[in-house]
Amino acid sequence: MTNIPSPGHPAVAAYLAQGYDSVVGMSSRFAAAICARLLRLQTEDGVGGPLAEIGAFEGRFFIALAHALEPGELAVALDIFSWPDDGVKGRFEANCLKHGVGPERRVTVKGDSGVMTPAELMGHAGGSRFRLIHIDGEHSRAALAKDLVLATACLSEGGLIVLDDMLHPGYPTLMVTVQAYLEANPEIVPLCVIDRETIVGATKFVLCDRAWFERYQARLLAIFEAYIWPLGADFEPHWCLVLSQDTRLAEIT
Predict the structure, then answer these.
(1) What is the pLDDT of residue 252?
(2) 135 near 163, Cβ under 8 Å?
């Protein structure tokens, strides 16, 4: 494992080093380490509770997130679990067990986020709001718009929404949905952009409540100093950090 920040959790670090690549999936190890560290940051700032992943697939990213929770906190995995075949749910469950996330620490939900109400989603976590929701479901504008509405309604104070496959060449219109969402929800802002490792391990956006932005940003500037791309991201008019394994600027001669 090279050029990966500390995830802030020994169990996450062990999984990233020894098990992450063995679980079929598309999310990058770099993004998993950063999101796990964000969960640690939340804990240190008094933000606790469950997390949810919309589009858990075979569990690669979910397992990393689950290991970053505190004792007694639940990780909820929501997926239609029918793509690419009906065996994906069994593989998800087996991967979780193999890598130390037992049924006492997770809830597996076979369902469609597009028709789920906030009360139904929170009901899978005992009625609690979520401190982090990772959206990696159907990659269409309509589905992402619905998932963003659902996530926003279920988020706790100080909570984070993480969006997968942003700026992916295979899904270029998803950014249109994100921009429309941000314009319609000015209380939510981008906290940071997590740069891609590869086309497969694509970019993620992390969103937070505007009231929490400066608090989180100050911590990120200190924790991830070596991974900050100097120019940042301009969301017009909001600016946020870009975290990358390659922080070089273009040479202009």
Answers:
(1) 73
(2) yes
**pTM, full prediction:** 0.96
Please state whether beta strands 233-234 and 203-209 pair in parallel, antiparallel, or not at all (unpaired): unpaired
Is the CB of residue 243 less than 8 Å from the CB of residue 195?
Answer: yes
Task: Kindly provide the residue ranges of all beta strands, DSSP E only, lying in the chain, ordered along the sequence.
Answer: 51-54, 75-79, 106-110, 130-135, 155-166, 188-194, 203-209, 233-234, 239-243
Return the percent helix, strand and coil in the chain, to nearest 5: 40, 20, 40
Residue type, 89: K
> Rounded distance, CA 154 to CA 119, Å?
8
Across 206-222, b (16+ Cβ under 10 Å) vs e yields bbbbeebbeebbebbee
CATH class of 10-243: alpha beta
Residues in Cβ contact with 96 at an 8 Å cutoff, skipping those fewer than 6 apart: 59, 62, 63, 66, 102, 106
Q: Quickly list DSSP for 159-191.
A: EEEEEEEET-TT-TTHHHHHHHHHHH-TTEEEE
* pLDDT tens-digit map of 137-167: 999 999 999 999 999 999 999 999 999 999 8
Cβ(131)–Cβ(140) under 8 Å? no
Is residue 192 within 8 A of residue 229, CB to CB? The reply is no
Instruction: Spell out a b/e string for 169-185, using b for 16 or more CB atoms within 10 Å of the CB, else e.
Output: eebeebbebbeebbeee
Adjacency order of strands within the sheet including 188-194:
106-110, 75-79, 51-54, 130-135, 155-166, 203-209, 188-194, 239-243, 233-234
